[in-house]
Structures are given as C-alpha cells and as structure tokens.
Design brief:
Immunoglobulin-like, alpha+beta, three-stranded antiparallel sheet, globular, about 220 residues
C-alpha cells in the first residue's frame, strides 16, 4: 500500500522529485503496463510546472503568475497521485521500485478493507470546449463520494463510432480520486460520442462492480 504523504511540500523539492518520478515512469512504462498517453500527460504536467516556477518564485512575481504556478502544481500532483494509486499498484512493481519512484510504502496491507460491493452512480456534464466533468457518488448515498476503504473511482472511457458491448471494450482508463473529475479530449474528437463507465477501487487495488455505461458528445 502506498502512503499518501509522499509529495514534497516545497515547490523546489517537488520539481526535483517530479523529474525523478517522471523519468522512472517513462523508462519503465512498457514493463509496468502504463499507456503512452498517460506518460505523455504526466510529462506535460511536469514541464508546465517547471516552466512557470522560476517566474513565480522571483521577487517580481505577481498574483496572476503565482496563481498559474499553483494551478500547474495542482495539475502535476493530481497526475502523480492518480498514477501512484492506480497504475503503480500493478503487482509487477516491487516495493523497491516504488521507493525509487519516491513513494512511501507499507510492507503489509490492512486486512479490514473490504472489496467494493457497490457501484458508482455518475453524471457527465460539459464544462468547456473538449472538457467533460464526471460527477460521481456511491449508489447507496448521494451525499457521499465513495465507500469506506475506496481510494477512488476507476474511469473507463473511449471515443467510439458505436456503443461498446461491455465496459471492458473501453480502452482508456484512469483513477479519479475526487469528484468531479474532468476528462480532456483533443480537437479531432469534438462532435463524437464518448462512452464512460466507472467502478470503485479500494486501497489494495481491488475493484468493485461496473456502473452502467453512459455517453455524451465531446463538445
């Protein structure tokens, strides 16, 4: 199990930590089963943070620049935490691998965390051009985002010409640790149908039952 307090608090420390994390993920992506698109998105977030940090750290930094830096930091941390809680739970990784990535780990996993038995209910809402927000909560409680022991909802999605026969047919996936979670698309996907399904994942990486498949049009 990966502990949650591994992100450095200082921006300069996060920059160096993130460079190591991104490099090791990129170097091992094929062996660890991490899709190229997710590696590219992680690297882009690291680059954006690295580019804005010097201007935001200088004595002449204004509030707009500092806010842009904070947004870039948040985006990078979100990518890192999502990958650590989802892709880097792959059993092929050892605790030694995770320590080299800069993650903190426990040697044992709690035995009291149950396998999810409920499914997420969710809504798809257009927020901007090429962006769709996924608002989710547990089927048993509209006011509670996720059940006990669950570290997020695995979001499976794909842009397809026809509805998929089963959620397994959706080729893209990520772990959303908060709601709403925004999916981003490329210009070529505008006007096409995107299909989405969710399932809970607990802190051991065990997944619960599928939600229904929902769809909307990429704006």
């Amino acid at each position: 199990m990966i502990m949650s307090d591994y992100i450095p608090r200082k921006d300069t420390e996060l920059l160096l930590w993130g460079e190591n994390f991104c490099t090791r993920v990129a170097d091992n992506a094929t062996d660890w089963g991490i899709p190229t698109a997710e590696v590219t998105a992680l690297q882009a977030a690291q680059t954006a943070f690295a580019e804005i940090l010097p201007a935001a750290s200088g004595p002449l930094a204004d509030s707009v620049t500092i806010e842009r830096k904070n947004e870039a930091r948040h985006a990078l941390v979100e990518k890192i935490r999502g990958m650590a809680a989802f892709r880097l739970q792959n059993p092929i990784l050892t605790n030694a691998d995770r320590l080299l990535l800069g993650l903190h780990v426990h040697d044992t996993k709690p035995t009291t965390i149950p396998v999810p038995t409920t499914r997420p209910n969710f809504e798809l809402k257009v927020t901007d051009v090429r962006r769709i927000a996924v608002h989710f909560h547990d089927q048993d409680s509209a006011g509670r985002a996720r059940p006990y022991g669950v570290n997020g909802a695995v979001v499976y999605y794909d842009v397809l010409d026809a509805p998929p026969p089963h959620p397994d047919a959706l080729s893209r996936s990520l772990l959303a640790t908060h709601t709403p979670y925004t999916l981003e698309f490329v210009e070529e996907e505008r006007g096409k149908a995107v299909y989405v399904a969710l399932r809970w994942q607990n802190e051991k990486g065990q997944k619960g039952p599928w939600s229904e498949i929902e769809s909307t049009v990429v704006p």
